[in-house]
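The record is passed on directly below:
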Amino acid sequence: MWEWRNIYRGMIMGASDVVPGVSGGTIAVVLGIYDRLIAAINGIFSKDWKKHLKFLIPLGIGVGISVIVLSRLIEWLFEHYPGPTQFFFLGLIIGVLPYLAHKGDVKNQFKAKHYLLLLIGAAIVASMAFFQASETEQMQNITLSSYILLFFSGWIASSAMILPGISGSFILLIIGVYSTVVGGISDFRFDIIAVVGLGILFGIIVMSKIVKFFLENYTSGTFAVIIGLVIGSVFVIFPGVPENGAMWLVSLVAFLSGLLAAWLLGRVEYK
């Protein structure tokens, strides 16, 4: 059966992927489809590939719609209202943690080693808040070496996207190709889109196999790391203390809206 509601899920994931600091993997966790997403990507190469495509194709349609339509809105919000927008995502991510803890059966399954893994995961992602983005101007003259850089940038970024808490867009910023990739998409530069897309495809396939292995063989430990990665992303996204009373109020409303959105998604997705 086709899972057409994956279109709206894909739209949310796609919109988040254009935001440096917000991970599409985190949003997949928020939506309650992370483990199914990993299984579906790996299932493409199995005898049940048709079933998995019925899950992935609607998701891909949603991501595509979002990149074309919603990404511009997200970029506008970040340009004009960066603080409140980030506080909304903070609320969304923090709000899903109770559902994630329930799914990982933290109360019954976690031992000291799992909490240690959680702390390590959180520390890894939180440390990214101290990285300085080396963003440069959009590439004008694309050479063979540029294509190679873009391919591996897509590979590395997509590997990060699969992991909750690690933003693929932020990785592109660190590498210094974010403007080139986003500009290539906006300007419909098919050469850039194809090269980066190929890198993304390889990265997703490879990383999903790694994550699937750990989910199947070390379930509690993997959930501990995932929860840690999500917690760590809070430190990356946190925009700082609002400057004045009005911004405090707007940011608080945005944060509470994110919590409400997480609660509503939890009611729908974590039944």
